[in-house]
UniProtKB/TrEMBL annotation, chain A:
Protein's UniProt name: Tripartite-type tricarboxylate transporter receptor subunit TctC
TM ranges: none
Signal peptide: 1-22
InterPro entries (UniProt xref): BUG (IPR005064), Bug_dom1 (IPR042100)
Family classification: Belongs to the UPF0065 (bug) family.
Keywords: Receptor, Signal
Top-level taxon in the UniProt lineage: Bacteria
Automatic annotation (TrEMBL), chain B:
Transmembrane segments: 20-40, 60-82, 109-135, 147-163, 200-220, 251-278, 319-343, 355-375, 387-408, 414-443, 464-484
Presence of the UniProt keyword Membrane in the record: yes
Organism whose genome encodes this protein: Bradyrhizobium sacchari
Pfam (any one): TctA
Keyword annotations from UniProtKB, A to Z: Membrane, Transmembrane, Transmembrane helix
Entry protein name: TctA family transporter
Stored InterPro entries: DUF112_TM
Domain DUF112, chain residue ranges per copy: 20-438
Length: 328, 505
């Protein structure tokens, strides 16, 4: 199974034909809508942007973070959908925009929102407890030999982590019991406490327990290694983690992090935010954050973004269908 | 002792005029948001978080944690004066706190609440200071079966030790569990009981329900009975405060028991709520005259407040050491820490000593300063009761509505709150207790998830709840407590308990 993710190489700005600053500016505080709970990856990213915008004076109006993580993020989607024409709300979206409408039949379609920019791609890594098997092969062999299925911790049901678990099973023939926790942080500590055998957390979610030597990264679900070569632990950097393909398990998945406005906003309003988030990606805060969380840099707007989203949507849809997660 | 040295270093970091001023500002803001029902700690901290971006991390976290302390203290005020719990764990405080206020002993009840908050937090901070590494490894022992066992223990202690008729407690609890199921089911990823409504996607927020059930229904009852807030003659003076303090040693057992329960449950997420209820129920169980609880007994304020604050404070430990927030407010603080580049986790204590010990030192200082601050302002708060009901009631309703709205910025929640107000009124009229309902609404989801995750993990084998010493003893204790009236009798017969039972439960 292959999941090509396009246009990653062009990490630098692809600001094409955005019209020059057309003069529109928010007249009241801007809300960053987070489709996840407090402390999660989206929340952290929103707070980073809030700090970057405030410290660098990128906008006159203040920015407030609005947590709408109810119903696994569906609350945020419905909130954006019902805010048509309101240019003071920006959603920080991830792959839930494709998956939730399929798995839970939420009446939502990202095409009803106004795309602003794709700002990052998030990786997935297969982790096990540092006392567990040391390589992917040993891990898979142990999973196959185990009397009861290995427990795989993850965030939510019928979402990225769950999909990856299903494909890991298909590719290797090993069986896993998937345990859906409420957050990646919980999945991380449950792995440390030996309540699960593995998880497929994003780098940021397992970073601290990795640095403390409590978990071990086995492989990254991408076609190439993570680019950051600064040491994260005493001996390893993100770039030292092999890809799953190198280790003989060809499963790939990247998750988008993108900004959206509600539907029916004017082109001037859209242009303002394209410019704003472009500036954000130039700040030291953003660059630090990307490296620290091992996010893959990308910046797409306009037609490129829509094309990217359409392709990404198709990929997610086929994965969800293949995994049997699409609600009838 | 290394911990002491580090702690004094922490105090040294803090003792500057700037930090002390920030501390006071934080506390006052915190009390203010705590007094408005629903606004509470999480919202207060979230609103004020951006203010601190330009500060250095230590000053920022000191200010934020003082807002947190302030909100904790403030939450007790509305519970006692108006029967409106500001936070989930203040619910148990209303049981005896509100009757005390009605009897004109508001100042006494407030003093008791603040003092026991102080004691509970102090015990927890001491624990954090000296046992931090040990405790965080204990928290790691908790997997789904252990979590479920703790929730089961809470539910069972409620049924087994409660004063109300058992069937009414169970009815109330079942209704709560039912409503807790509304919204997204995280285990299956499907929606339940939303009937196609976008508003119901979020599920039923606990605080919205509590504000309605307790606050609005109280207003309705008062309107029906007489148009006055009871408890006019709240005499306030240093004498009341000292009087409460003088009696404090008499309740050492309650304080100790509640602190212990609080600290123990605090390190498991969501523990503060369970702790406050359990602290209350156990105090009642071990009292010589359990039937006097719920009628304005000071111990009924001491017990839940001590437990709630011991656990609220010790909940910061798993947040710092493991990155798991134990409460909504802790979750926002967690977000704040990350903005300053401090990643909570096992290495925080090693790599950012200054910060961690500054925070712990600020817990001591913030707690002391907070206690003085709230005690000196007790007269102001207690005097609210002297304002005519006709003037106060609309203000309470408006503040309830603002609170209900502010939790999720949803107009629908105001209607929901009013609906719950009517439900609460009816429940009170027909004698169905509200507390089991609210408890089930808060813990129902987590208990269900924990149970189902345990079942997935064990392949559907119930033996998993006795699979190790920790989970086995908690589960067994839960079952003993569920059938307490029966088991107590049996134990008594074989001579295991010396106590003679005074009243049928």
């Amino acid at each position: 199974m292959r999941i090509p993710v396009k246009a990653v190489g062009a990490a630098t700005a692809l600001l094409l034909s955005t019209p020059a600053f057309a003069g529109w500016e928010p007249t009241k505080p801007v809300e960053i809508v987070v489709a996840a709970g407090a402390g999660g990856a989206s929340d952290q990213m929103a707070r980073m942007m809030q700090a970057a915008i405030q410290k660098n004076n990128l906008m006159k109006q203040p920015m407030v973070v609005s947590l709408k993580g109810g119903a696994s993020g569906a609350e945020a989607l419905m909130y954006m959908k019902s805010s048509e024409g309101d240019p003071n709300k920006v959603l920080i979206a991830y792959s839930l925009i494709y998956m939730l409408p399929l798995s839970a039949k939420i009446p939502f379609n990202w095409r009803e929102l106004t795309p602003v920019s794709v700002i990052a791609l998030d990786q997935f890594v297969l982790w096990d407890n540092s006392a567990g098997p040391k390589t992917v092969k040993e891990f898979i062999d142990a999973a196959k030999a185990a009397s009861s299925p290995f427990k795989m911790g993850g965030t939510g049901s019928k979402r990225e982590d769950h999909v990856l678990t299903v494909f890991l099973e298909q590719k290797t023939g090993a069986k896993f019991s998937y345990l859906p926790y409420k957050s990646g942080g919980e999945a991380a500590t449950q792995l440390v406490g030996n309540h699960t055998e593995a998880n497929v957390n994003n780098p940021s979610e397992n970073l601290e327990v990795w640095r403390a030597g409590q978990v071990r990264p086995l492989c990254v679900f991408d076609k190439e290694r993570i680019s950051y070569t600064n040491k994260v632990t005493d001996t390893q950097s993100w770039a030292d983690i092999p890809t799953c393909k190198e280790e003989g398990v060809d499963v790939q998945y990247l998750m988008l992090r993108a900004m959206f406005l509600p539907g029916k906003v004017t082109p001037e309003q859209q242009a303002f935010y394209v410019e704003l988030f472009h500036k954000v990606t130039q700040t030291a805060e953003y660059k630090d954050y990307m490296e620290k969380q091992a996010l893959k840099p990308i910046f797409l707007t306009g037609k490129d973004m829509v094309q990217f989203l359409e392709e990404d949507d198709a990929i997610n849809k086929s994965l969800m269908t293949e995994a049997g997660f699409v609600a009838k | 002792m290394e911990a002491l040295g580090l702690l004094f270093h922490g105090f040294a970091v803090l003792l500057t005029w700037k930090t002390l001023v920030l501390m006071m500002v934080g506390l006052v803001l915190g009390i203010f948001v705590g007094v408005l029902p629903g606004l509470g700690g999480p919202n207060g901290v979230a609103i004020l978080l951006p203010l601190t971006f330009t500060m250095d991390p230590t000053s920022a976290i000191v200010m934020l944690s003082c807002i947190y302390w302030g909100a904790l203290f403030g939450g007790a005020i509305t519970s006692i004066l108006f029967n409106i719990p500001g936070e989930a764990w203040s619910v148990a405080t209303t049981f005896d706190g509100y009757p005390m206020a009605q009897q004109g002993r508001a100042a006494e009840a407030l003093t008791a609440a603040f003092t026991s908050s102080f004691v509970g937090s102090l015990v927890a901070v001491l624990l954090i200071t000296f046992l931090a590494p040990m405790i965080s490894s204990f928290a790691l022992k908790f997997g789904p079966p252990e979590f479920f066992a703790v929730y089961l223990l809470t539910f069972c202690s409620f049924v087994g030790l409660g004063r109300e008729a058992k069937h009414k407690t169970v009815i109330s609890m079942s209704l709560g569990l039912l409503l807790a199921g509304v919204g997204m089911d995280t285990v299956s990823g499907n929606l339940r009981m939303t009937f196609g409504s976008a508003e119901l996607l979020r599920g039923i927020n606990f605080l919205v329900a509590v504000i309605g059930l307790f606050g609005i229904s109280e207003i309705l009852l008062t309107m029906e009975e007489r148009l006055a807030l009871r408890g006019h003659a709240a005499s306030i003076s240093l004498r009341v405060v000292l009087g409460v303090w003088k009696d404090l040693p008499k309740y050492w057992m309650t304080l100790l028991r509640s602190s212990f329960i609080g600290c123990w449950l605090g390190i498991t997420p969501g523990g503060a709520i369970a702790a406050s209820f359990m602290g209350y129920n156990l105090a009642k169980r071990f009292a010589k005259d359990p039937e006097s609880f719920g009628k304005g007994r000071i111990e009924g304020v001491f017990a839940p407040e001590t437990a709630a604050h011991a656990s609220g404070t010790s909940a910061l430990l798993p947040m710092l050491a493991l990155g798991i927030p134990g409460s909504g407010t802790a979750a926002i603080l967690l977000g704040g820490l990350m903005v300053w580049g401090l990643n909570p986790g096992p290495l925080l204590f090693v790599e950012h000593k200054d910060f961690v010990w500054g925070l712990i030192a600020s817990m001591y200082l913030g707690n002391v300063v907070g206690l003085v601050l709230v005690l000196t302002t007790v007269p102001i708060f207690a005097s609210i009761l002297r304002v005519p009901f006709a003037a106060v009631a609309p203000m309470i309703v408006v503040s309830c509505a603002i609170g209900a709205y502010a939790i999720q910025n949803a107009m629908f929640d105001i209607w929901l709150m009013l609906g719950f107000g009517v439900v609460g009124y009816v429940f009170k009229k027909i004698g169905i207790p509200l507390a089991p309902f609210t408890l089930a609404l808060v813990l129902g989801n987590r208990a269900e998830d924990a149970f189902r995750l345990s079942m997935i993990g064990s392949g559907g084998n119930l033996k998993v709840f006795w699979s190790n010493g920790l989970v086995g003893s908690i589960t067994t204790l839960a079952i003993v407590l569920l059938f307490w009236p029966v088991t107590d009798g049996l134990l008594g017969r074989v001579g295991l308990t010396q106590r003679t039972r005074t009243t049928p439960q």
